[in-house]
Specification:
The complex is a heterodimer of chains A (about 325) and B (about 325).
Chain A lengths: L6 E5 L3 H9 L4 E4 L17 H11 L5 E6 L9 H13 L3 E4 L2 H10 L5 E3 L8 H11 L3 E3 L6 H10 L3 E8 L11 H6 L3 H4 L8 E6 L2 E6 L2 E7 L14 E3 L2 E3 L7 E3 L4 H6 L4 E4 L6 H19 L18 E2 L9
Parallel strand pairs in A: 1-2, 1-14, 2-3, 3-4, 4-5, 5-6, 6-7, 7-14, 13-15
Antiparallel strand pairs in A: 7-13, 8-9, 9-10, 11-12
Helix pairs in contact in A: 1-2, 1-10, 3-4
Chain B lengths: L3 E4 L8 H14 L4 E4 L8 H4 L3 H10 L3 E5 L7 H13 L3 E4 L5 H4 L4 E3 L8 H9 L2 E5 L6 H8 L25 E14 L4 H5 L18 E4 L5 E6 L2 E9 L4 H7 L3 E4 L6 H12 L5 H12 L4 E2 L13
Parallel strand pairs in B: 1-2, 1-11, 2-3, 3-4, 4-5, 5-6, 6-7, 7-11, 10-12
Antiparallel strand pairs in B: 7-10, 8-9, 9-10
The chains are: A alpha/beta (about 325), B alpha/beta (about 325).
């Protein structure tokens, strides 16, 4: 079976990562401005206007597209930066913007009708009717689907939705409906929606306890490790907690998503684009992951089952999973 | 400005008779203006309470309460969506949308937006208003500054063209009423994964209604045995009861006109009376705080979100 070409959408947090992604075979690179307008507002990350201009100038002649994520939620009384980001995206010639907020979408649709609008995963649109709402009202042409759907559900959405669909295939897992989670905010006062960060490093503390390490997020213990035990970044929902007297990874194991074996299924389900998570990752990681995913997409296109080359060393806690795409995840 | 109390939807899986009797008592005794009914967390629970809807709605309406029909917080399949259609077809009152997927079914008719839809700014509020939203309960993590901007009499930021389709927008009665949750565990996250089933070692499809075992949520503690969260099916809530009893005057000053009490397995009639007495100035701050602490038992209170702090804080 020859599968339709899938667009590989890759992250970049720096100009160096962008070049690495383009060189490694990214069809598209997505990135954000260095401010509160995107959901990866980490220190030292993201692009200035000038850097975005250079990014477009690097990507376009090499056949790659550039998408700009403007996917956090403007605070009341301060919508200016988000509107400015939309205006600048149009002016600098990005190929699409990725947006989650209804107000920002409305502004973009009214002010720059010719600028392609994609719905961010942060909008948590998980049903064809939600996509129909965004399509009809704001003319979105693509939606990034939440990481909580099974392949059959994705198939149903792709068949019924009036827009293209994009799904995550590699990188961090988010077990909650994205863009609707205040867990980080509850523990630290900062959340993806309010500050563009989840479980921010500024609020993480590792407290040595003899041969063990206690992991604190704000005022709460979210894990405890034996020294030397592999551990990923301490995101709240991947912490260890007690329920009914048992300590466990109640919400999500410290694993990351690797859906490469599912690429043929996803393509058959009608998905248009595959997305890699990780704008916070460095150039070397991006180069390696993008190459591996490129290879998997080519294998799938040629009708062969992708044989995952080992990326285990790069994944969270050294382990990976098919995530919510497997029905038993639920 | 008139200030009114709303009883939010009961979010837990109680036995059907207990559910019915709870609402009967609310109808008969609680000083609330509006009462939300409807399964917000899991569509598998809904069939149990359906047989009692007619009686409960009748009892509430006879008591002069406005009935609001709440719908699922996460709509991923036809079972979730069916609950929205049922609410629309029931025609008993305003329908509360908690997921954007419900909006196409409600566009052009008056409806309510629940706390699970992201309304963070004026443009979003204006857009939802143009499509028929008459009341909006804001997301729980919004600080006072945002609440003030959204509940104030100020028009939305300049520069927005007139929006909404001609003929079906709301009449020019201004912006939606703003409602704020002032009591009850904060709803913090929603997933397709059922953590309740997971905690009981069961699959979601074979859950055997594990959530029915925990009528006030399943406690989730840190490894140091500190209360942190509770799990309620696919929903994760704060372990603490959110409490903005001391902030009612500030909220009123912000322009907030409706106050939501989210049901817990404690004396909710007494909680409602306490908030109404405080709103009416019949009881002082100190006295009200002491009374609420007694009603809350061992459960901590929190108000950090409102103050722009960690949500778990009690300032």
């Amino acid at each position: 079976m020859n599968l339709p070409g899938l667009e590989l959408v890759c992250p970049a947090g720096t100009p160096a990562a962008l070049e690495a992604a383009v060189d490694a075979g990214a069809d598209t690179v997505y990135l954000g401005f260095r401010d509160c307008t995107n959901a990866r507002n980490f220190p030292g990350l993201n692009f200035s206007r000038k850097e975005l201009e250079a990014a477009v100038a690097y990507a376009h002649p090499r056949g790659s597209k550039v998408y700009l994520a403007i996917n956090s939620f403007p605070q009341a009384g301060n919508e200016g930066p988000w509107r400015q980001a939309v205006d600048d995206a149009a002016g600098l010639g990005v190929d699409a913007i990725i947006v989650s907020d209804i107000g920002v979408l409305d502004y973009a649709a009214q002010s720059h009708p010719d600028l392609r609008r994609h719905l961010s995963v942060q909008a948590s649109a998980a049903h064809p009717l939600a996509l129909a709402y965004y399509h009809r009202n704001f003319g979105i042409t693509r939606a990034v689907l939440p990481r909580v759907l099974t392949v059959p559900q994705i198939k149903e959405i792709a068949a019924e939705a009036p827009v293209e669909t994009e799904v995550f295939v590699y990188g961090g897992m988010c077990p909650m409906a994205e863009g609707r989670c205040a867990l980080s905010s509850y523990a630290t006062g900062r959340s993806p929606n309010t500050a563009g960060v989840c479980s921010p490093a500024s609020h993480v503390r590792y407290v040595p306890e003899g041969g063990r390490v206690q992991v604190r997020l704000g005022d709460f213990t979210i894990n405890r490790f034996e020294s030397g035990e592999p551990s990923g970044y301490p995101t709240l929902c991947k912490g260890r907690f007690k329920a009914r007297g048992h300590a466990s990874y109640l919400f999500e194991d410290p694993v990351s998503l690797d859906a490469r074996p599912l690429i043929p299924e996803l393509a058959a389900a009608g998905v248009k684009a595959l997305k890699i998570e990780g704008r916070q990752r460095g150039r070397a990681y991006i180069a390696q992951v993008v190459s591996a995913l490129r290879e998997a997409v080519e294998e799938a296109a040629a009708g062969r089952a992708p044989e995952p080359t080992s990326l285990a060393a790069l994944s969270e806690g050294g382990r990976s999973t098919g995530g919510a795409y497997r029905k038993d995840w639920r | 400005m008139t200030t009114l109390l709303t009883l939010g939807p009961l979010l837990y899986h109680w036995p059907a008779e207990a559910w019915r009797d709870f609402y009967f008592r609310i109808a008969d005794e609680a000083p609330v203006t509006s009462v939300c009914l409807g399964e917000v967390v899991c569509p598998k629970r809904a069939p149990f309470t359906f047989p009692h809807y007619e009686d409960v709605i009748q009892r509430l309406e006879t008591a002069g309460k406005e009935v609001v029909l709440s719908t699922p917080a996460l709509i991923t399949d036809q079972r979730d969506l069916a609950l929205v259609k049922d609410a629309v077809e029931l025609g008993a009152g305003l329908v509360e949308a908690n997921d954007v997927a419900a909006l196409p079914l409600l566009a052009g008719r008056p409806h309510v937006i629940g706390p699970y839809v992201n309304v963070y700014n004026e443009s979003t509020l204006a857009r939802l208003s143009a499509d028929g939203a008459v009341r909006v309960t804001l997301p729980v993590e919004l600080p006072a500054a945002s609440i003030g901007k959204l509940a104030g009499q100020d028009a939305p930021e300049t520069g927005m063209p007139e929006i909404g389709m001609p003929g079906i927008g709301m009449p020019e009665t201004g912006m939606p009423e703003i409602e704020i949750q002032v009591f009850g565990r904060w709803p913090l996250a929603i997933s397709a994964r059922c953590y309740h089933a997971r905690a009981y070692g069961r699959s979601k499809d074979g859950c055997l209604y594990a959530c029915g075992e925990d009528p006030d949520g399943l406690p989730v503690e840190t490894l140091d045995d500190e209360p942190f969260l509770v799990v309620n099916g696919v929903q994760t809530q704060s372990a603490s009861y959110g409490c903005l009893l001391n902030e009612l005057d500030l909220l009123k000053a912000c322009g907030v006109s409706r106050f939501r009490l989210s049901p817990q397995k404690i004396g909710m009639i007494e909680v409602a009376r306490l908030f109404q007495d405080r709103l009416d100035g019949r009881i002082g701050r100190e006295e009200a705080s002491v009374a609420l602490r007694q009603l809350a038992g061992h459960t901590a209170l929190s108000n950090g979100f409102f103050h722009g702090r960690e949500g778990a804080q009690f300032v």
